[in-house]
Amino acid sequence: MTTHDGAPILPGATIGILGGGQLGRMTAMAARSMGYDVHVLDPDPDCSAKPVASRVVTARFDDPSAAIDLAKGCDVVTLEIEQIAPTVMEAVAQHAPLRPGAAPIWIIQDRVRQKDWLAEHAFPVGEFRHAESADDVKAAVQALGACIVKAAHGGYDGRGQAHVTQAADAAKAWEAVGARRSVVEQRLDLALEFSVLVARRADGQMAVYPPARNHHSSGVLAWSVLPADVPKEVARTGAEIALGIAEGLEIVGLLAVELFVTTDGRVLVNELAPRPHNTYHASERACATSQFEQLVRAVCGLPLGAPTLVSAGAIANLLGDLWLADAPPDVAGALDVATARVHLYGKRSAREGRKMGHLSAIGQSGPEALGRALDAYDAFRPGACPAIERPRG
Ligand SMILES: Nc1ncnc2c1ncn2[C@@H]1O[C@H](COP(=O)(O)OP(=O)(O)O)[C@@H](O)[C@H]1O
Ligand SMILES: [Mg+2]
């Protein structure tokens, strides 16, 4: 079923997705809207994408024979998670085009390789060191001051990370990340966080989305708004960086670049994601082409859609905490807020910090859209959960 580069993979074909979480589910919904069939591979037989996929291969992301089973039934395979074993990527690529390919995924899936690649290619990053021991962490803190230790593999939503402010606590931080190979980053004073999403086709054609402004709470995205209220120069720099990285890594599909603006005015790359991204969920409503449809177009070799804004849009994440509170969430209350929509991922069990869904809203301006999304969030949480912070100013 291998398709030659260049010939578009048209509706009626089957798209495989490695990973059946919410990103896979929303990609699958976009693919279904366009007339594609969707197969997914996920360790959880009841994964979020299951109701949308005609086939779920239940397997871990390090099982090459399951990956071959998936790929044999697909015309193209993409992914919603970067923690895919190289043996699986190789196995897939022998039976169907894997987009993005194994080379950029291998770089991005390891924080050490990713940071090195960015630095070697002269993209701006904060100061960092490698750590293979508690002593390395100590030396980094002595050189850089307060730091964040991030395990090379397996961290997400702030997991696999430990803050360390003094050299004496280096061993504790090293243990906290599981005594694993890590990057140690200087802790930066952030003025704000934003992201830029780029889509790229195999022939090099690219489309860049307007920047999204993001707010994290305890290392997890709380809300995001499109467009970001950043100076034009910052937006331009972010777009240039994101396009440069997508080109340099020869991404086929999507690349989300998380960026920092520091209090001293520097624009720095935080990290990369070669897939749809939580900070662009508002693109479903705010942009001419959602990130999910754009991924389908890019991996199928179809013309990229316009990434332009048709409205301002915002989202607020719904974490499992909201379902664990005293009162159940008030879905109807949230839907009563102007332009609000509720997006739930069909996850059966709520856990603290688990992403269960998000709320979205649109408006004439970013602040209006975000205000509505946060009003919907306040309406959704009648229980004891703390509210998420609103933007300052
Ligand atoms: N070097 C840093 N300095 C200051 N804050 C940071 C730094 N690295 C990460 N953070 C904060 O932690 C959040 C999560 O870190 P990140 O590296 O993006 O991990 P994850 O993969 O969990 O998203 C960031 O969005 C930012 O708010
Ligand atoms: Mg991040």
Overview of the structural elements:
Catalyzes the ATP-dependent conversion of 5-aminoimidazole ribonucleotide (AIR) and HCO(3)- to N5-carboxyaminoimidazole ribonucleotide (N5-CAIR). It is an enzyme of class 6 (ligase). Belongs to the PurK/PurT family. ATP binds at residues 111, 150, 155-161, 185-188, 193, 216, 270-271. This protein has 393 residues and is of the alpha+beta class. The chain is built from 13 helices and 17 strands. Strands 9, 10, 11, 12, 13, 14, 15, 16 and 17 form a 9-stranded antiparallel beta sheet that branches. A 4-stranded parallel beta sheet has the order 3-2-1-4, with helices on both faces. A hairpin with a 2-residue loop joins β11 (212-217) and β12 (220-226). It binds adenosine-5'-diphosphate and magnesium ion (MG).
Which key phrases capture this entry?
single chain, 393 residues, alpha+beta, nine-stranded antiparallel β-sheet, four-stranded parallel β-sheet, 13 helices, 17 strands, 26% strand, globular, binds adenosine-5'-diphosphate, binds magnesium ion
Mean pLDDT: 96
Tell me the overall shape: globular
Main β sheet profile: 9 strands, antiparallel
Share in helix: 25-40%
Outline the low-pLDDT stretches.
none
Strand composition percent: 25-35%
Main structural class: alpha+beta
Q: What is the number of E strands?
A: 17
Radius of gyration in whole Å, from Cα?
20 Å
Count of helices?
A: 13
Distance between the termini: 55 Å
User: How do the SSEs run, as a string of H and E?
Assistant: EHEEHEHHHEHEEHEEEEEHEEHHEHHEEH
Bound molecules: adenosine-5'-diphosphate, magnesium ion
InterPro entries: ATP-grasp, ATP-grasp_carboxylate-amine, ATP_grasp_subdomain_1, PreATP-grasp_dom_sf, PurK, PurK_C, PurT/PurK_preATP-grasp, Rudment_hybrid_motif
Family: Belongs to the PurK/PurT family.
Domain ATP-grasp: 115-300
Catalytic activity: 5-amino-1-(5-phospho-beta-D-ribosyl)imidazole + hydrogencarbonate + ATP = 5-carboxyamino-1-(5-phospho-D-ribosyl)imidazole + ADP + phosphate + 2 H(+)
